[in-house]
Amino acid sequence: RPFESHFALGPIYSYTARPSLILAQHRQLLRQAAAAGGRDDDPSPPAVWSPVSLHRRATHSQHNGRPPPPSAGPPSSCGYLDEQFCQVEDLQDDASPNFTEEVVTLFFKDSARLISNIEQALEKYPKDFSRWDAYMQQLKGSCSSIGASRMKSECMSFRDCCGQGNPEGCMRSFQKVKREHGALRQKLEAYFQLVRQAGPAGAATRPV
Amino acid sequence: MTVEEVKLQAKVNGGHAAKDQFPVGMRVLAVDDDPTCLKVLENLLLRCQYHVTTTGQAATALKLLREKKDQFDLVISDVHMPDMDGFKLLELVGLEMDLPVIMLSVNGETQTVMKGITHGACDYLLKPVRIEQLRTIWQHVVRRRSCDAKNHGNDNDDSGKKLQLVSAEGDNGGVNRNKRTSRKGRDDNGDDGDDSDENSIENGDSSTQKKPRVVWSVELHRKFVAAVNQLGIDKAVPKKILDLMNVENITRENVASHLQKYRLYLKRLSNDASRQANLTAALGRNPAYVNMGLEAFRQYNTYGRYRPVPTTNHSQSNNLLARMNSPSAFGMHGLLPSQSLQIGHNQNSLSTSLGNVGVMNNGNLIRSAHMPLQDTSKCFPTGPSGNSFANISNSTQLVTTNNLPLQSLEPSNQQHLGRIHSSSADPFNSFVSESPQFPDLGRCNTTWPTAVSPSNVQELGQKDRTVNGPKLEPLSSFTEANGRIPLLGNELQSQVASLASSGLPMPFSQEAVPFSYGSGTNSRDMLNNNIALNNSGISSSLPNLRIDNSAVPRQTLDGGNSGGVASPLQDGRIDQQAVSSQLNFNNDLMGTSSRLQRGLSGGLDDIVVDMFRPDCADDGVPFIDGDWELV
């Protein structure tokens, strides 16, 4: 498999080296580390390179976790992006060559608005759980549309707190949502940069 | 062909392409307020080679659907939208366009899914939607078509007449068939160029033309009533009505069956009215029509789901309608609502004063009065004689013109009632203290369905459903919310409703201030007021009214007033009951009204208590689809 062979090549620290390769790996990283056992600190890398470390280096991200496997799990064990993102990418074709980036841009624009709504609601309507929940549900829907799994998980735990009537829990969870939002934005920005650099070759390495 | 080419072709070909290469080119309307999701969905659908139109607003979606009725095969809608609840959109689409609707939501809770299904969604998808799921959604379109086809066999060749035999009611296929054939007929008139295309399509065709059922929405019913009134109830034949209505996707058969129901309803009203001795004496008019109208109105109130009100005396209806049009009569009507059915009942009593209330108006009023407050807006056909009118009228501006503009059952109808009142009977003015809520009655005059705002109707419809079927016209105003229907009952009901069931979204209840009430008082108060106000035999009707308010205005009338009204109420009630009551309240009301019917025993207290029985709040009560349920 292309990825594995690339992994064998050694760590890649710079963007300039084999962007397509990096891109491919990046994609892999962003999506759940499928093979990973799930343990946060040491996902078993399918290849030589720990996806986490590669990811970190490639994107200079500050995230402290690693792309764990499938989104269904608790936030810490979710990949940043899940299969839905693949599906979105698959929709990109000659007719809409920048589809993915367009969707992602749209997502961040809209989600920023939703987050700000929630923030206002948290302040303006204290303990109005049903309102908070309704807003958060909108955000959750958005997240699921592009496959932002970690963010989605945090949204779900926020809603759980709402259900429990736990305002502090809601606040905490909301902070996490914002963090995940920021982290994802960074990652995707970096990702798209790679895509651009990789050019047509990058597209060719797209999984599936 | 590359994907792009296919897409392009699909787009270009639009509707007709769909037929040829179905499911390729199937025309989907996607509605979702989330732009990200909408964009992804759109592209997923395009990838499936469907023809896609998107909008972020439910209102826009409806507009698109209404404008181009046959331009879409399928609707996919999100559940949570800011401007309109997805379920409401779902219902509307099902009612008006009868297209398959797929719900979409991030919320997969059983309860929500259940709600979607009971509201008529043909599928419920969870976000994020996978393309695999979308590849098979065309099955819903095919299923509908084949259902229709199956039900009606090969009706493409049927003549319109033949279809007439087929009752559209409750017959999915029938309506569709009727529609198709009727369309064919209309083709002859050159009305619709597409018809021939459609008609030539076999049942199993991928055409989206087929709509299994005609749902008599308030708006539709309003047009129907307007057409009928224009033609004159005696002369109204389905074909002419159909032409006057000028609505697509309705066959003559649909109209015929609807007309039948309407006639029964009117008949029932007139029967009730004739029993209203008091009213007769006082008013000297024939409120029968009013009652009937009201009832029918009520029935139609329910959002598109009418309980066809059995038309009682068609001929009477005519008279009544005529009388109703007279302004004075209208005023009476105003009273009716509050007074409940009496007025309606007293066809005789309605006499000139009432009857004159814009003939139509009267009819409407009465009808509304009779119609059990379907939920909120039921106008009680004021049973109690003229007094009730007075009550009603006072506040409503029903009598703005001699012809109570029933047509616009806007919430402001309530005012109508007052007006009507004023114009018709001065003495009544004193009675009507507030009836601002009754304007509906006034409105009912001209057309049943007057201007019931769809949204209102929707709401009320639900409520109303329980109450009355077809008589909704006036009720529709009710639904509009505020029980425009001057019927006291409406107010009462609304009040009761509001009191009894918090869940009732009756706009009407808020304002429904039964004329006799005083704003916001209980029905009980109203009742008291009514009693006080009613010099004539209204008092007896009052109890009825109360009860009726909640359920069937008619009932009250029957019970108390001159008894004439009762029947419509009863009928109305029955209808209501038939309709799955959206609101328990309605159910309660019905119970009360039935009690009334039994002779108002138990006194007011019982009734009132009964009315205020907490509503069981059945949000989930689905609309009774099927439209023509006569309970």
What's the structural blueprint in terms of helices and strands?
The complex is a heterodimer of chains A (208) and B (631).
Chain A lengths: L1 H6 L11 H12 L20 H9 L23 H8 L8 H26 L4 H18 L2 H16 L2 H38 L4
Helix pairs in contact in A: 2-3, 2-8, 5-6, 5-8, 6-7, 7-8
Chain B lengths: L2 H19 L5 E5 L3 H13 L3 E5 L2 H10 L6 E5 L7 H12 L3 E5 L4 H9 L4 E4 L4 H5 L2 H15 L7 H5 L7 H17 L4 H8 L17 H14 L6 H8 L6 H23 L2 H7 L4 H14 L12 H11 L2 H13 L1 H5 L1 H9 L4 H11 L14 H11 L17 H12 L1 H6 L7 H6 L9 H14 L4 H11 L5 H13 L6 H5 L11 H11 L4 H13 L2 H7 L6 H13 L5 H14 L5 H9 L20
Helix pairs in contact in B: 3-4, 7-9, 9-10, 11-12, 12-13, 13-15, 13-16, 13-32, 14-19, 15-16, 15-20, 15-25, 15-26, 15-32, 16-19, 16-20, 17-19, 17-20, 17-21, 17-22, 17-27, 20-26, 21-22, 25-26, 25-32, 25-33, 27-29, 27-30, 29-30, 30-31, 30-33, 30-34, 31-32, 31-33, 32-33, 33-34
SSE string of chain A, helices as H and strands as E: HHHHHHHH
Per DSSP E runs of 2 or more residues, the count of β-strands of chain A stands at 0
Please report the distance between the alpha carbons of the first and last residues of chain A. Answer: 11 Å
Sheet/helix structural class of chain A? mainly alpha
What does this 3D model show about the protein?
The complex is a heterodimer of chains A (208) and B (631). Helices cover 64% and strands 0% of the residues of chain A. Chain A is an all-alpha fold and 208 residues long. In chain A, helix 2 packs across helix 3, helix 5 (99-124) packs antiparallel against helix 8 (167-204) and helix 6 (129-146) packs antiparallel against helix 7. Residues 1-17 and 32-76 of chain A have low confidence and may be disordered. The A-B interface holds A 84, 87-88, 90-91, 93-96, 99, 102-103, 106-107, 110-111, 134, 137-138, 140-142, 144-147 and B 2-4, 7, 33-37, 39-41, 43-44, 47, 78, 80, 105-107, 127-128, 130-131. Chain B: Keywords: Activator, Cytokinin signaling pathway, DNA-binding, Nucleus, Phosphoprotein, Transcription, Transcription regulation, Two-component regulatory system. Chain B: It comes from Paspalum notatum var. saurae. Chain B: GO terms for molecular function: DNA binding; DNA-binding transcription factor activity. Chain B: Residues 148-161 have a biased composition (Basic and acidic residues).
